[in-house]
């Protein structure tokens, strides 16, 4: 989600403080290889977040110290990992989602490893089954969010579907992220391609552009500066009541509010959702592959999967993992999200982004 999630600071998209585990206290930088290093290094996008006691449990169980290097948003982090693959920054990369997965695999970013517990990962999230180069870690839905108070004040029904967004009553209300620079922006573009097909998505974006859609570089700007329904947007006196964000954004608006409201101030247009899945993999030239394998095992353990929803605001992918009641109440997964085969994404993504850029930004 990326949320992905996947997901700048909502932890999978909501501007919350990241709780990353920092480097080893014993001075080991992880360069000793599998024979001597007691530090394992995780490279991630900026949405990584985990509870301190969960990190402590991993370190006690495995005997390795965890070091985390955050490297920008999902697209930036993946591109940098590819450029540095011969001399990687760490041992495991987390945060490549299904919109960018083929780029990582085609460039040989990961080496095979089947994580222990992979049999408990729900079947719908498993890919690359013959080579086991990546391990599914979390999932989330990219969706249009709406400001409930704004629509109530205007006595206007919020949009529910892609088709609704191009209607005259929603003119100049929507802000989206750049599909070439933002993971949710790319997810929303793929959602429209899944909805309208190869021959129809461009016409849809022409209508969306004519209806006053606003494009900004990334999620944080869109959600915290342009969207009137977010805590940041209200503070910034934002004037757009529709934004491309995540299905998990409303529960974050509730859980982290003070005082905590009884209902979420934002809602989700479920007919606009595109499902993202985030993966982790053992980097091809990892200096500590054994530590990396232990970390991948842990990422799909019940302890880590139970911890994710309230830290990274994503859903777990392992059977039996627990999701908090507030998360389910205010941020349920979309019942019928748009999806796309990874092979189709691989074949079309770059050309779609190029066409989108020419069509929408020029």
Fraction of helical residues: 25-40%
Write the H/E string, N to C: EHEHEHEHEEHHEHHEHHEHEHHHEHH
How many strand segments?
11
Radius of gyration: 20 Å
Backbone shape: globular
| Quaternary class | single chain
Biggest sheet descriptor: 10 strands, mixed
Low-confidence stretches: 2-35
> What's the number of helices?
16
Give a written overview of the molecule.
- It contains 16 helices and eleven strands.
- It is of the alpha/beta class and 362 residues long.
- Strands 2, 3, 4, 5, 6, 7, 8, 9, 10 and 11 form a ten-stranded mixed beta sheet that branches.
- Strand 2, helix 2 and strand 3 form a beta-alpha-beta unit.
- The longest helix has 19 residues.
- It is globular, with a radius of gyration of 20 Å.
- The N terminus is likely disordered.
Features:
ten-stranded mixed sheet; 362 residues; alpha/beta; single chain; 36% helix; disordered N terminus
Please specify the SSE layout and strand pairing.
Blueprint lengths: L1 E2 L29 H4 L2 E6 L7 H11 L2 E6 L3 H10 L8 E6 L3 H6 L3 E2 L23 E13 H7 L7 H4 L8 E4 L5 H14 L4 H10 L3 E3 L2 H8 L4 H5 L6 E5 L2 H7 L10 E18 L5 H11 L2 H6 L1 H4 L2 E2 L8 H6 L11 H19 L2
Parallel strand pairs: 2-3, 2-4, 7-8, 7-9
Antiparallel strand pairs: 4-10, 5-10, 6-9, 6-10, 6-11
Helix pairs in contact: 7-8, 8-16
